[in-house]
Amino acid sequence: MGFLKEFKEFAIKGNVIDLAVAVIIGGAFGKIVSSFVKDVVMPPIGMLLGGMEFTDLAIVLQENSIGPAGEEQGPVLLNYGIFIQNVVDFVIIAVVIFIAVKALNSLKKKEAVAPTPPPPALTKSEVLLEEIRDLLKK
């Protein structure tokens, strides 16, 4: 009984729910950025490089390989182009997240700089008590 109660309190806390929402949105955001890189950024770069796509870049390690059952499996490739593509994806995602965090931090700073209301005016008795305190200090 105690374990279930503790787990329920843990799962219901706002931080866990916020984290779950952030993970879901982050996954969707990752797909959007990957599509942006693959479909918008990389085609012009490939065009500048003479129609080459990064994902096609590879080094042939072995022309034809033979599988465990003796069947021919094709060449063994070192696909460094896919690695380059993933590095470009990562850099663009990191830049976008940096810009988003920076924008959020600037909004938080603006909220923190908001003027605080002036303290309420002192009553006559408080003013007299302060005067008495100041006189006693002298």
UniProtKB/TrEMBL annotation:
Keyword Cell membrane recorded: yes
Molecular functions per Gene Ontology: mechanosensitive monoatomic ion channel activity
Protein localization: Cell membrane
Keywords: Cell membrane, Ion channel, Ion transport, Membrane, Transmembrane, Transmembrane helix, Transport
A Pfam family hit: MscL
Alphabetical list of HAMAP family matching this protein: MscL (MF_00115)
Protein name: Large-conductance mechanosensitive channel
Species name: Algoriphagus antarcticus
Gene name for this UniProt entry: mscL
